[in-house]
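Worked example 2:
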Amino acid sequence: MRTTFLLLFFFVLTGYASGADGGKKGVSDSATMPVTYPTPPMSASRLFYVQRTPNANTIIYDLNIANNGKPDEDEPVKVYWIKYAERSQKEDLNFIQRRFAYGLNTTPLGNGNYDLRFVCYKKFKMTLMKAPDGKYRIFAVISQKPAILNRIFVKIDGGSFWIPNVSYVQVNGTDPDTGKEMVERFKP
């Protein structure tokens, strides 16, 4: 019950009520990301991003490297918005978004590796670690196999301000062995 409430809280406080399109426009039910949503520009530090139906605003998760070349111990992942529905400006998460929604709980595992969990949905396990290419990546289980996490999309169909109807969460990644795209949908 608490997990369901936190997940709903996550989506409500992070833009559901402010979505100009009511969560209907620009959403495809295909196995890939909706084509009308902007793709954030690539950067050397980009780990993954989250988008959802209320609007095109996107939450970005970038690697935060310390002076020693390893992820910063206090904040290994920097999280912020790109507000596409406004002027495409970068904006930090506010306190509520960071502490109750899109922020991450991080647990050091040693060797610059971290266990990461969304503050609102701890069931989805992610690990920050070096990939075979020597770059830090986020790994998660997608379709019952370890994958490099690229993006998450949340489909919301109606509901109310406090209890939106989350139809599904889609997770896209890359198979680290073959380079093929992996996709999984689930209902939280």
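Residues 2-32+44-186 form one domain. The first strand starts at residue 46 and ends at 52.
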